[in-house]
Specification:
about 425 residues, FAD/NAD(P)-binding domain, single chain, five-stranded parallel β-sheet, binds flavin-adenine dinucleotide, about 25% helix, globular, alpha/beta
């Protein structure tokens, strides 16, 4: 059998899982190449813990090369061009041909799309979706003694719809422990109707209830227009709101390189929800950059979309790796992603809840919410360890445990 070349773009959650799974399944005659402009993998699912002091920045990142199985070639370069017609990928120094391409390039953060937001980010606002902003937010919180903090979702869709909500719960814990909770107003402002809309209305209602019990003000359906950095004021469609500290999730877009390749239409890359195949032969797309329509609708004519999150990227990566490996090895079996996933919701005070279930059900995703407990917080920590683990044995044990816990159902056999 002639050796094949599989190129994986992006060494975030989706790319790392794909490359490692493929290496496990395929012999050395097949080449696996991973490309990322960053030398380090950052586990953003632990970023909020850095802000509240439970982790250091060093604890949530690792060199990509240390997270890879032996026998994966890693190129630390920016991808400049993807050429589906000629099956090549270009960086500044290389042109690489591929037989299979897996795109997991995540999102590009675009604060400049909101008038005034870039100026605000130079003052009392922090973009906590990037590492510099995480450090700025940590320091700003350290010095914060009194006033109003607003956690703001600038636009939809955004990755990890849990993040703004669990951040508010972690801030409740943080200021309670510092003995100044009564002096700090915590607000969340978002265009969404309910927290974690992609999980269905039941889970959204429960998470909103948790926030209300923690004294967090949840401002739904607030469409951001602009920010006035001099006045510390946000302009929404519904009026203005003042802040002393603004914690921002900026607008997201697909990276330019996939738009130029004709993969994105025009914002995200549409894929088949089971196979993660794009419209191009042998190109798969997973993770945040993929657009997966769900069977239900928000309102007439507006389809629900699968949420963007590390857990989805993780399970999609496994499906894609299994199918590519089976095809290369001449095996008939194929699997498809079944929409199973789970999202931890950090609740503060050492506890986490869990929204888990099936996201491809109609008319809305069918998820249940497990109430916050110390055991679930520990489970989230184990997931953090998985994504930052240098040991394939540890990852194998975690896979086994997840399978026993019901997560084997993330895929189903194609008949
Ligand atoms: C604060 C925060 C908290 C979160 N918490 C959770 C959580 O608790 N649970 C959860 O499941 N998810 C969480 N997420 C979301 C999770 O981090 C993402 O959904 C996940 O990383 C998506 O994986 P991905 O592979 O699609 O993209 P990413 O992990 O973003 O990886 C994309 C990679 O592509 C690289 N890249 C992009 N463009 C280029 C280019 N042109 N050339 C070369 N390289 C390029 C980037 O450097 C990056 O390494 C959180 C995110 C944030 C910001």
């Amino acid at each position: 059998m002639a050796g094949k070349i599989i190129v994986v773009l992006g060494a975030g959650v989706g790319g790392l899982v794909t490359a490692n799974e493929l290496r496990r399944k395929l012999g050395e005659e097949h080449k696996i190449i991973l490309i990322d402009k960053s030398k380090e993998h950052v586990s953003y699912s632990s970023a909020l813990w850095v802000i509240t002091g439970a982790r250091t920045i060093e604890e949530i990142k690792k060199p990509v090369s240390r997270l890879l199985q032996n026998g994966i070639e890693f190129f630390n370069e920016e991808i400049q061009k993807i050429d589906p017609a000629n099956k090549t990928v270009k960086t500044a120094t290389k042109e690489i041909s591929y037989d299979y391409l897996v795109v997991s390039l995540g999102v590009s953060l675009e604060p400049e799309n909101i008038p005034g937001l870039t100026d605000a980010l130079k003052k009392n606002a922090c973009n906590f979706y990037d590492l510099n902003g995480v450090l700025k937010a940590r320091d700003a919180l350290n010095n914060f003694t009194k006033g109003t903090i607003i956690i703001m979702v600038s636009a939809l869709p955004y990755k990890c719809p849990v993040a703004p909500n669990e951040f508010s719960l972690l801030l409740n814990d943080y200021f309670t422990k510092r003995g100044i909770r009564k002096d700090v107003k915590i607000k969340v402002c978002t265009p969404e109707v309910l927290p974690m809309g992609g999980n269905g209305p039941k889970t959204g209602g429960i998470v909103k209830g948790l926030m209300e019990s923690a004294g967090v003000e949840y401002n739904s359906q607030h469409i951001l227009q602009s920010v006035n950095a001099d006045r510390n004021e946000i302009v929404f469609d519904k009026g203005t709101m003042s802040y002393d500290l603004l914690l921002v999730i900026p607008p997201h877009k697909a990276p330019k390189v996939v738009v130029e390749a004709g993969l994105a239409e025009p914002d995200w890359i549409p894929v088949d929800k089971g196979t993660l195949k794009t419209k191009f032969d042998n190109i798969y797309t997973i993770g945040d950059i993929a657009k997966i329509k769900l069977p239900g609708e928000w309102k007439q004519g507006v389809p629900l979309m699968l949420s963007k999150g590390g857990v989805f990227a993780h399970f999609e990566a496994k499906v894609v790796a299994e199918n590519i490996a089976n095809e290369i090895l001449g095996r008939k079996e194929r699997v498809e992603y079944a929409g199973r996933a789970a999202c931890f919701v950090e609740a503060g005070f050492g506890k986490a809840g869990l929204a888990q279930g099936y996201f491809f059900t109609a008319p809305t995703p069918d998820t249940v919410f497990l109430q916050p407990s110390k055991l679930l917080h520990f489970s989230k920590v184990m997931f953090e360890k998985y994504w930052l683990s240098e040991s394939s044995l540890f990852r194998g044990i975690m896979d086994f445990i997840m399978e026993k816990w019901g997560y084997g159902e993330y895929k189903r056999k194609v008949k």
